[in-house]
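Hi W.,

Here's what went into the run:
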Amino acid sequence: MKKVTLKDIANELGVTVGTVSHVLNGIDDISEETKLRVLDAARRMGYISNGLAASLRSGKTKTVALIIPDISNPHLAYQTKLIEDKMREQGYSVIILNTNEDERTEEEAIRTACSRQVDGILLCPCQRSTQNVEFLKGIGLPFALIGRYFAELDADYICADDHKSGYLAGRFLAERGYRAPVFVGAYEYIEPGRNRFLGLAAAMSEVGVELDDMSFFPIDPIVNACGDVAARLEGVKFDSVVAFSDVIAFEITPQLRERYGHDLPVIGFDAISSHLPLPFYNVSVGMIGGGWAAKAADVIIAKIDGSRDTCRETIDVALFEFNK
Amino acid sequence: MKKVTLKDIANELGVTVGTVSHVLNGIDDISEETKLRVLDAARRMGYISNGLAASLRSGKTKTVALIIPDISNPHLAYQTKLIEDKMREQGYSVIILNTNEDERTEEEAIRTACSRQVDGILLCPCQRSTQNVEFLKGIGLPFALIGRYFAELDADYICADDHKSGYLAGRFLAERGYRAPVFVGAYEYIEPGRNRFLGLAAAMSEVGVELDDMSFFPIDPIVNACGDVAARLEGVKFDSVVAFSDVIAFEITPQLRERYGHDLPVIGFDAISSHLPLPFYNVSVGMIGGGWAAKAADVIIAKIDGSRDTCRETIDVALFEFNK
DNA sequence: ATGAAAGCGCTAACAA
DNA sequence: TTGTTAGCGCTTTCAT
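Here's what came out:
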């Protein structure tokens, strides 16, 4: 099927492309009669606008890039769903790019996004260094960090209250008499991991227990890549486990149970069960009200059209006991 | 930061844009010296190509649209992950569009994809009618259906072997003495639901049980939208449940257990636990080897570059008992 | 209310 | 090996 262009419609009707363009874009300076003829011809001929040409000329693509570690993580998949729905309603498309927690891949993703002239970028950074975010800042494109932020960097973000998250997990355990939690997950350079651990430590401190680095077990945060954590924990003294995420908590629970019994408490984060009902008891600390997705979508659009220039926002969290 | 164009580089070096273009695109007809100078200048000046302009001129965007019901479904999120990884490796970007199982939204998504001049479309159709797929066929853009196909329509697809899936679930139950499974899920017009039910019926038939429509309970397949299925099942005679998907199985299991006891077998599909380890016993029939993602990526690329023109492929399935 | 024309940044065909 | 030129299909400015 041959592609129909503005010119084809213009020729068909004996008007100019400018006229057709105005009608199709709702610029109201064309007579009612011509307008109707154009609209009719466009429908009849099956016209679909060439967004590429429009974008090249206008300088806006109505597209944003969503750069995240791994869309197969249910937490990110859910946030992505909410973002895409909201962006689409506003006429935006979203390009999704996985980084697999790899800095090099992340840089490639940023370059790809820029090359495709996206109007803005939403980035959940892998955080091995600040380099990529600094590169992004230098470009001058609207962007915001989501889910993870750099304390040492001047950049917009929308994140969970991670310190409080860890604190809530810690208090939950402390109230039930546990005194030796071990934190399993992510690397120390990943902010949510660090802050959740610090929050956990703060809660334990309130009951007279001081946690040190021995209670922090770094592991790869990628889905389904934990390995035999239970074995690595052999020899360590602990009476409860706090995992970096629900995904990790779910994955290591069977190992832990086999080695340390069924009653060992395991707490996760993200509250996956709140949007993806799962039929087993689990406790998790997650954001209330759908998380950072809605805010992130609003903010990036606002930054694109210039109605907002800065955003440092933290989403509140709560502890959930599912299927109690 | 001002945007650097080919022309800027050309002016800087006293060559023409054509020369610069050739160097940057690796067309090897430029002297080593000029090449080096161009490459150096590009790096120095922070050049990032304008893909829009390149695409407008060349007619290729190196972009595909992935149109699916709901990215927050872990099964689709995982398939999406595999597809995006593979496409990215080949230089393609993927635009993700949720349809929410809505035909109108799906049509919009197809139009959006076309307007953005994607090179190809991967579509998991909502199937309320064949209309959108026929529209897509008419456009002449390379596309393939994923996960769901239309028996009555001539269109490429890569899908699970759904009939066998249902059959395996049925045989699993039959072998354990169950004789009255009820199938919960999706609407009759959604192909995998229909075929899984037919497979289930085939298996039951082998042990002398004939299933009729009374054993098919249609419900909304969207994540977290089941409602009180257990209550709706009240009065129906059944000894086991086969759900349209793991997501549905997981969601309704607590309701069912509360009403019908902990021992009621519930079987799902997609084998989510195989890529997202979950710490509870569940049985599910899913595709082996990562599912249709890899094939879908290969096929759409092959169709785009003309090295393949048709594909009717079914991915084999197996039954999994997780955390037995 | 409509036309005419420039040009967004690039690729590709052809000249030199 | 490099330069020249003509668009890709649209938006936008300026005339009419």
